[in-house]
Amino acid sequence: MVPIRPPDWDWSFTTDGALALVPTLNSQEASATVPPMPPQGPQRRARSTQRRPRQRERRVRRLAVLFAIALVALVTLLLSAFGGSGAPAAAPAPASASRLLPAGPPQPEVVSRVGSLHLQLPVSQSRVTAIGYQGGSAGSEPLDPLGNQANQGLLRRLGHAIFGGSASGPRWYQLPGGQGPATSALEVGAAAGTDVYSPVDGTVLSIGDVVLNGRDYGARIDVQPTGAPSLVVSVSHITIDPALVVGSPLTAAGSKLGSIVDFSGAERQSLARYTNDSGNHVVVEVHPAASLSLG
Length: 295
What we know:
Elements: H1 16-20, H2 23-26, H3 42-82, E1 110-114, E2 117-120, E3 131-134, E4 144-145, E5 148-149, H4 154-163, E6 171-174, E7 185-189, E8 195-197, E9 202-212, E10 215-225, E11 231-240, E12 249-250, E13 256-260, E14 281-288, H5 289-294
Parallel strand pairs: 3-6, 5-6
Antiparallel strand pairs: 1-2, 1-4, 3-7, 7-14, 8-13, 9-10, 9-12, 10-11, 11-13, 11-14
């Protein structure tokens, strides 16, 4: 008959307990497949020490490259966001024959102020190549331009974007040269032969030739504004319309004064830097009536 459970464990303390105390049977042998890792020698510690500075140098170079890329991206973003540039505009497509014909009077648009006197754009908007300000002749009054200066520095553009500036009006350029204050001469660029209209309501005070180096370069017309009789508005770099005489009444942006003369043979015109031609333009200045009569 097969026993239901295994026999009792036949274990002898005298025999088997003594075998458990034998050192050779109780010791752990080294693995036969994985050799023990040798201790780290001085040569490997030296290589590890040399590797750390190279890793730090690579991290520094990567950070420098990332910083440069971020800086370029920031400058590009600021320039695109706030606009404005001192570079001339891209060359337009060739003008058709219809664009070479007179465009008629401009739409009423105030481009500058002197106190309560407002100066209207004297040339049709479709013919304007650029607008600039520079120092005028002696005794000319500083003008307050409307719009935004297109060639101002980045910091000034940021300041205007943050604190606000003139939101309406055309883009204009600050030009070098002249005797009077930096914005005392308004130059409105357009091709020679473009019609010029009065910038103010008023009356013709005088008409005189402009002579440089013994040659006539158009004329200058002085206008007494209706709303500011103590001032005189002078318009030059034009050939005078023969219908005008002293005492003729004028309407702003409605009365034709003449047409722009080709001034490229007289001087190198500063406005040419921002146009695609020689920079011909009409000049508008404002003088105190008393100082003009004395001059």
